[in-house]
Amino acid sequence: xxxxxxxxxxxxxxxxxxxxxxxxxxxxxxxxxxxxxxxxxxxxxxxxxxxxxxxxxxxxxxxxxxxxxxxxxxxxxxxxxxxxxxxxxxxxxxxxxxxxxxxxxxxxxxxxxxxxxxxxxxxxxxxxxxxxxxxxxxxxxxxxxxxxxxxxxxxxxxxxxxxxxxxxxxxxxxxxxxxxxxxxxxxxxxxxxxxxxxxxxxxxxxxxxxxxxxxxxxxxxxxxxxxxxxxxxxxxxxxxxxxxxxxxxxxxxxxxxxxxxxxxxxxxxxxxxxxxxxxxxxxxxxxxxxxxxxxxxxxxxxxxxxxxxxxxxxxxxxxxxxxxxxxxxxxxxxxxxxxxxxxxxxxxxxxxxxxxxx
Length: 358
What we know:
Blueprint: H1 5-18, H2 22-25, H3 28-65, H4 72-99, E1 111-117, H5 121-141, E2 145-153, E3 159-167, H6 171-175, E4 180-186, E5 197-207, E6 221-226, E7 242-247, E8 252-256, H7 262-288, E9 305-310, E10 315-318, E11 323-325, H8 328-332, H9 337-356
Parallel strand pairs: 4-9
Antiparallel strand pairs: 1-3, 1-5, 2-3, 4-5, 6-7, 7-8, 9-10, 10-11
Helix pairs in contact: 1-3, 3-4
């Protein structure tokens, strides 16, 4: 089943030797590339080595049990060793299957997140603000950095829309399941009769695209400058530092007004534009292979309702996997690991089923 893994181990050992050579250490680009490759295959190599050790233990235990001269005490020890080795082999086999699943090439990338208030007016905008705070606190718990690109707030502290970057190792691998429609059920502060209102917000999570991933022809761009709006004190309306970039072939429009510098706002806007174009191309690619993954966790479609936050019951329900947790306060305060871990586990299980059915 794992016949090709010896070659991976050999490659791992070869990289280890390469990393000790002075000419590699002084070549920053090569050193970084080798370190990344070494780190990427390390979990697979370590698990495979443990699997080989368990197999050897099993063989040795069987040899002892086949020895007719073995006394009773040693036979009992050999039987315990065999039982333990078989359990290890079973566990490590499943771990290796997961490690050998095709990797999402975007998992190590930073993410660009866009949250937009949906149905529900001001209450929807307030819910969008709750979601932004939730992701901000989750990022902080993972020591990821957040950089806001564009923010459109309401007078009551809600958010009509916001675009921000989360930078950190594995950010996309954890947050990619958040794309879709999030629904909230709660009694608004302005509701005098205690009626529960339902509102929505849309979340889009996109891997940040490098210039290599998406090449943009400057001739395809229309760039406008305008005065920033919203909070900002004396700076507002004195300089036209905000940037609007229109990608003419696709019609995509990106605004950025978070920085006081036109150049910085332009860089941020292009960063978002590349991510959106990359996301469109990725969606087309994913739909082309969707027949292989009918039961994948969601589709990434922004119109798909993925989760409900019910405040009166303190309940969170993820509709894609039927997960219900009665710890809403913890979740909206950034404790998302239990939800995300369940989504990842389900996704891996379905991927394994798809692979075994081929």
